[in-house]
Amino acid sequence: MRALARKVLSGTHFWQGNEACAEAALAAGCRFYAGYPITPASEIAEHMALRLPQVGGLAVQMEDEMASLGAVIGASWAGVKAMTATSGPGFSLMQEMIGYAFMTETPCVVVDVQRAGPCTGQATKVGQGDVMQARWGIHGDYAPIALAPNSVQELFDLTVRAFNLAEAFRTPVVVLSDEIVSHMHESLTLPAMDQIEVVDRKKPKAGDSKFFMLPDVAPMPSVGEGFNVAVTGSTHDESGRRFTADQAVHQRLVKTLTDKVMNNVEKIVDFEAYNVGNCDVGVVSFGCTSRAVYETVELAEQKGVKVGFVRPKTVWPLPEKAVREMAGTAKKIVVPELNMRELYYEVERVVSGAAPVVSVNKVGGGEMITPEELLAEVLRSVK
Amino acid sequence: MATAEPFSMKRYLRPDLALPFCVGCGCVNVMSSFLRAAHELGHKDLSKFVFCSGIGCSAWIPSPYIMGDSLHVLHGRSIPVALGVKLTRPDLNVVVFGGDGDIAGIGLSHLIHAARRNLDIVVIMVNNMIYGMTGGQVAPTTPYGIKTTTTPYGNFEYPLDATRLVVSAGASYAARWTTAHGEELTQAVKKAITIKGFAFIEAVSPCPTACGRRMGFREVADMLRWFKDNSISLEQASEMDEKTLVGKIVTGEYVHREKPTLTDNIYRVVKEAQKSAAG
Questions:
Q1: Does residue A320 sit within a domain?
Q2: Could you list the residue range(s) of the whole structural domain that residue A62 is in?
Q3: Reduced to 3 DSSP states, what percent helix, strand and coil does chain B have, rounded to the nearest 5?
Q4: Between chains, do B273 and A54 touch, taking CB under 8 Å as contact?
């Protein structure tokens, strides 16, 4: 029993993805969770409800997803790291709040365990149809950060990183998991507590009065610290003062918010790559679908076709350089995904005609794209 | 602990901002009642408060005019944000200002659940019976028959009684006054701040610009007079039948009962979980 009071359960475990995600949040310093039940994300809420109180944190079930992210944002301004988790329908409901977090530079983590949409779709079946919702879900301009794990270990690692990025850049960060990665059990290793890199937000000094829209990320006061901070989702200046008519202030604000992420793409981007500089066919694949790519590479090599791949761990921002490099040598780029073309269009834009881009799509029924199906597309018109 | 210094609204406001409200807007009275209550409770500044508000004219009461911490959030979502703040910092007084559209329209479920949880915050709903900021559209609180910009032939729906709703949902404190009852409103705010648990105040308030003139009031004073003439006490109301009560503003303290709050309950759970996890 004693072990349960530990903030990081260091060691090797055989866990479900959603458990790993919840434990990662604890390891990253998350002490507030608010959520609304939804398949296939509910285990995160259940695990947080069990574990957060053991380490002195709070978990609360809210009346809906808007309230969930709202409570998370309130907790973040009160000074703690906070998270919510949901799936497609709830992710849709949260978009306005994600826009608020982006506009007010509120660090928070939103886990979206993707299921087959649109709408209620197939609640228990995997999907990867939220790529573009993570990119463009809010209204107005946005520079998103979305991390896409493909294993239980990586769901742990990337959830920790999501908190670090949220704190470093003062922005909402999405963990774009999926039903397969979140529901499967795998072994994973949690490092010792002091081996886990944890980033905390920059705090203001006494007398500071600029808490927003600084290019190198403004310091963030908490409420109750005496800074008299005014936080608003309306257009505002560095002090938080509302400016709802001035074009120049609005442009400066939106540019600063988007630049904060886009000027740091090199620091944020993360991916796995294989044979990008020397391949016949390139594959760009993320999340659960990317688990088939390794076997496809082997099967293709047996047939004398060299396959390279880029596996984005950050879907947003996309590792554009690596994709472009691969397109320089590959005869074509294949984009397999569990939707009817989302990442495909982004890859097509990045490749910009250097190689033809083809897609392999499958939606619904919990069916994955098999290594053989991917192989068939890889070999088509190459051999 | 009343302070000897005379009350001054200015002391609690940011020095270089002009208030945005129309002439005759009740938001100024609500702001004044709140600040006077804080003053009478001995708060020399608002460092022990956090304000949350959503969208609408009354959301501008704290943000950014009041010198203190304020979170000006999305339409309807001030109460959940306030929950996140209060649970994390139980030592602070968290006060929500919002209009009837914000609190009883788009954000109604949050109001009910906050009362159910007995979340120890203060919610001050400024009820002007209209969507004022957007130009006078019908609200869930608009009386039956009133012409608004979206009910040009008269409102064909019945208004919601938000105060009675929070009473049945479990609020610790609920009161309704109008801005024509300045002293009663101030005393109610003082109670709301000091009691433990969810406290709700409905301040019926004039919007001369978007509501009053459509209801046929030529002057702000006419509307305030109507508030006074049309208000009856809870005691009076208890002796009236439902038909005679239609269109009346029933003022007074609806409930004052204390029980463990959400903060009490959740921190008890944390304490027990920590104890049992430590073995």
A1: yes
A2: 2-195
A3: 40, 20, 40
A4: yes
Which of A223, A237, A241, A244 to probe the B interface (max B CBs under 10 A)? Answer: A223
What number of helices (H) and strands (E) belong to chain B? 10, 8
Judged by CB atoms closer than 8 Å, whether chains meet at B70 and A77 is answered as no
Chain segment B230-271, per-residue pLDDT in tens: 999 999 999 999 999 988 999 999 999 999 999 999 999 999
Position B66, amino acid:
I
Is there a contact between A228 and B69 if contact means CB atoms under 8 Å apart? yes
**Residue A358: CB atoms within 10 Å:** 17
Nearest-5° Cα angle at B193, B189 to B196: 130
In angstroms, how far is CA B4 from the centroid of its own chain? 28
Rounded to a whole number of angstroms, the distance between the first and last alpha carbons of chain A is 60
What residues of chain B have any CB closer than 8 angstroms to a CB in chain A? 14, 47, 50, 52, 63-64, 67-74, 76-77, 79-89, 91-92, 109-110, 113, 266, 269-270, 272-274, 276-279
| pLDDT single digits (tens) A169-218 | 999 999 999 999 999 999 999 999 999 999 999 999 999 999 999 999 99
CATH number at residue A276: 3.40.50.920
Q: In chain A, what is the greatest distance between 2 CA atoms, to the nearest angstrom?
A: 69
Instruction: Point out the domain boundary residue: A195, A221, A244.
Output: A195
Domain-wise residue ranges, chain B:
23-277
CB contact under 8 A, A227 and B70: no
> Which one-letter DSSP state was computed for residue B240?
S
pTM over cut 0.90: yes
Which CATH number is A75's domain given? 3.40.50.970
- In 3D space, the residue among A91, A93, A99, A88 whose CA is nearest the CA of residue A139 turns out to be A99
The CATH class that applies to domain B23-277 reads: alpha beta
Tokens standing for residue B152: 């040009």
Judged by DSSP in three states, A311 sits in: strand
Are A190 and A281 found together in one domain? no
Rounded to two decimals, the ipTM of the complex is 0.97
Q: pLDDT tens for residues A251-295?
A: 999 999 999 999 999 999 999 999 999 999 999 999 999 999 999
